[in-house]
Amino acid sequence: MKVVKILERVLTTIPIMFGVAIIVFFFVRLTPGDPVDIMLGRSGAVTAEELDQLRHQFRLDKPLEVQLWYFLSDAVRGNLGYSYVRNKSVVDLIAERLPATIEMTLGALLVSLIIALPIGIFSAVRQNSLLDRSSMAGAFLGISMPSFWLGIILILIFAVRLHWLPAQSRLSYDVQLREVTGLYVLDSLLTRNMPALVDSLKHLVLPSITLGAGVAGIVARVLRSSMLEVLRSDYIKLARAKGATEWQVVMKHALRNALIPTVTVVGLQVGVLLGGNMIVESVFSWPGLGRLVVDAIFNRDFPLIQGSVMIYAITFVLVNLVVDIMYTYLNPRITL
Amino acid sequence: MAVQATHPIKSGWYHTWTIRLRLWWRGLVELGYELWQRPIVLFGGIVVVAYLLAAVFAEQVTAHSPARGSLLLRFQPPAWEAGGEWAYPLGTDDQGRDLLTRIIFGARVSLAVGLLSVGISVVVGTALGAAAGYYRGWLDEILSRFSDLLLAFPFLIFAIGVMAFLGPGFANLILALAFKGWVEFFRLARGEMLAERTKEYVDAARVAGLGHVSIIASEILPNIIQSVFVLSTLRLGSMIIMEASLSFLGLGIQPPTPAWGSMVAVGRDYLLTAWWVSTFPGLAILLLVMAINVFGEGLRDILDPRLKIE
Amino acid sequence: MNHVRIRPVSRTNRLAVTGIVLIGLVLAACAPAATPTSAPAAPAAPAQPTSPPQVIVVSPTPAPGRTTLVVALARAPQTLDPADHRHRETETVIRDMYDGLVTRDTKSGVHLELAESYKWLDDKTLEFKLRKGVKFHDGSEMKADDVVFTFDRITKANAIESPQAHTSPRKGLIEPLTSIEKTDDYTVVMHFKAAWPVAMQMIVHQQIVSKAYVEKVGTKGLVEKPMGTGPFKFVSAKTGLEEIVLERFDDYYGGAPDLKPVGKPCAPRAVFRVIPETSTRVAALLAGEVDIISEVPAEMVAMLQKVPGMQVKTVAGTRPLWLEMNVKQAPFDDVRVRQAMNYAVDKDLITKKVFNGLAQPLAGPLSPLNNFADPSLKPYAYGKDKALALLTEAGWTKDASGVLTKDGKPFSFVIDAGETTRSLAEALAGLYRDVGMDATVRVWEYNVLQPKLLAGERQAYVGDWGDSAFDPVGHMEAKWSSYKQGSTYGRGNFSGYSNARVDELILKGETEIDETKRHAIYNEAQKLIYDEAPAVFLVLPEAIEAASARVQNWEPASDSRENLHDVCLK
After folding, report:
1. B301 at the A interface (CB within 8 A)?
2. Of A243, A286, C152, C198, which is most buried with the most CB atoms under 10 A?
3. Torsion C546-C547-C548-C554 (CA) sign
4. Could you report the predicted ipTM of this complex, rounded to two decimals?
5. C450 to chain A: which residues are within 8 Å by CB?
6. Pick from C288, C253, C237: which is nearest to C60 by CA?
7. C246 φ, ψ to 5°?
8. Contacts of C279 in chain A (CB under 8 A)
9. Nearest C-alpha of chain C: how many angstroms from A295?
10. How far is the C-alpha of B44 from the C-alpha of B42, rounded, in Å?
């Protein structure tokens, strides 16, 4: 039964994907800036024939409907096109960068949960105390400043002044690591490479904090308010009446239910983070999807832009589906 | 035995809203009391008001011009550092303009960006959400699918696309922000509407003969407004920060108009030498956004009837 | 709303917070109040000297241990194929793996590299004798076949087959080359369509690939695993060429004999890292993570010089800056106005303040370091009065509020800039506002702006144009000759300037071999452009690079190349 429901959900995502595909297709073609001009503008002397030849290669000389047809029919077969600028297929380019973005997302998620869970729980339990107000204010610190500013300041403190952590990239150059999944921390564990494990973790810390600080605030807020609601509910009173300790009440009973809306928000944030964060990636020279996509936009690299947005949309929708499935496990009364 | 009304149930806009006004006044007094109980939240509110006042009375409070500077005064450090002077308390930027003045004038732009983009998002999102939630049917289907679509679009890419299409500038920036922002309010309003419309007072209103729009506007909306209001205070902060992100990409407010986001973005190249150019506007954003969040969160606590039972 | 009393905040908590709030308010009230004046006054210039920029105190570079030399680039290379790009950073990395027939030293003199000698057989024919025993990284010997193959690959249409067949973008750099052939295994002969005075300078920019290798692995293989004759051989590259690892080539023939030291490179390994964010790049240098960085902003020089052992070196810049005005539209269609625009700019102030003294004023369309710059031309001197006099002559007078107007319309224009020239554009706008013009700045994405500039849709643009050959060819025809679509002529001409005599002179100078005659030709062209002032001739900033204390034998090069051959890490 559940499987059927899941399949139903997956099917409803298809029209969304089509919608996204069509929107992005027209979007990129309507923004000013011609990709062929931009590419060849770099080369200097270009003859009109070369311009035409390139346009023909990119199918830009065909009417819009034809281009759209090519795009969609290729896309459903898994071919997202070939980048105009980078001489590689879009799928390859994204696959290269995806592990880096996944790693940073997971790191940010971990950091945000480490910050947000304790804060959310204790703020709710000790509502309106100074601890509550100030820790919520602290949690908001993360979403209250531009990420690039936080990132550069962290670099200045931890890399330049203290020399504790590296300022950029994913791995030091003199560290060897055999890539299995592309997630360096995981790969170091799989290949039992201790120096690489330490090194990749060190590189992950600052970007994760920079990104995670933002997510932490949101998660803490949601967790706190849902905890507050749950703690007021009848069945918590029942649990207390039955003699459960405060710890059990909070952690076993209340938290379980409070996690439901929290999980939704976390899922949403993960979906956003997986799209890559161009700004944090720029500051830390992290080779992820964010920079890839923004470069593509500035180069008007249509296939790469289209492909990336499609991948992002699919990821987002899938993550939300996973979240909804998790819902049903957290609270059996909620059906898909 | 049927209960007979002793006097006719008056309804209609005027009556409803004068009663509401009186209730609101009482509510405000209670609100003030509640705020007094929560000093940090109150402090947050004071900070927000202070920023608003600074934005409105910028000319009166500052001594220098925000847009004109002298190259000879480039990168003066803040007054308490060596080489600084009290005429320029927070130092000067790369064009020799007084930073404090620019921060105060920047409040205008940043607050305007925040308020307008959130305002438009709220109005459009709430109206559409309420309509979708109330009427259901094809209207709901189309709007919901469309909002899902927009949600699946990464914001920065969307914003870059919109700005590239429309060109940089204040109005286009707000448009870009609002275009993505309304979705959240749509979902919120729709969700709340779905919950509310099944309640008894809606049936009562219908029995009393009110039309659909009347019902939505005078009965249901006031109940939804609270959560919309609190969400909007939270979004205000993030819109202001979005402006900074877009400035990072070169799509923000054009020079020489001071806006905190572009000041932080432009100043980041000087963080190692003239750190004040980026840091103080950043602190201005930080303080305001935190104050908004703390105040908004506090308001939510106060206003949410479900949290009242001890 | 109904409510039940919530748990009250404890007394101590409330007192504490109230106290904090009160203290805050008191402090705010006591802070020196800015006295409100009715009109915001333009700030008076203080007599005190400028304060030293903040210093980030850092510990000296961490203890040595790393033997790999790390260079941080501001942009990622686009490819590793020597023939498939037009990009400085790409060439920088490639030239450490590939050698060319000739090379440049840091002062831009040309020296023999893979070629042992050369001889002009006549005005249009050039013979190179190749060095013997030069090995490619795979052990094969470089011979004339490889040289012919390399140049054919660049000049023939659609010679690069991957990903789709296309012509090398570098073809335009050796446009006059019509054919090349080998006469024996170590001799090649090049034929040009006309006399080409800058031939040697331009041949520097092409590097030799192995014919056998490219034919075997194709362009795709060449890009994935580059193979040249250079001092370093390719080890690996990360996604998007963000990190490129090179290793010393032990069988390196030694390099250009003129450029000491000759022999294997000093560093056993070298890594190019891409760090696009300026602050991060400098931070990485300060933290000891990288050894050499390029593109140091002028503001950071003083701070870096204070770090013990840090080497900050400048080198003659190759990117002169101009403010080009649209000569086809008012207000810039009047030459007096354009000259006034020149007089209104205090180049000394700009040099001192915007470039921290690390720039020199331009005296015309050519960089002062160009071999053919006219020494008799002096930069437009700063003179507000002179500027105003010219403007009055052209019909512009100040109205009641001090803004220049003519026929009721104010003198207003927009200065377009890219992100990198934003600060300069704002400074210029400020200077022009001082004279009474209504100048504003708009920052653009260059890609979107460039076609608009060529179409004549904008008013003023501040930008640079590379002049790394120090010869007018490759620069003058792009910038100052009339724009012809589809050709190299005028492709950088954003002012719409068009002078038939200048066009003629530029063409003549391209094919004139005699130096004296070339000087005469270019002097005349420069004077014309100077007088007609289609642009405000601004400054030539110096290129600034920095290296940590451990780096030895390093000099930045004016063509932005990072030549790692001689560099040692202590």
Report:
1. yes
2. A286
3. negative
4. 0.83
5. 41
6. C288
7. -120, 155
8. 152, 155, 283
9. 11
10. 5
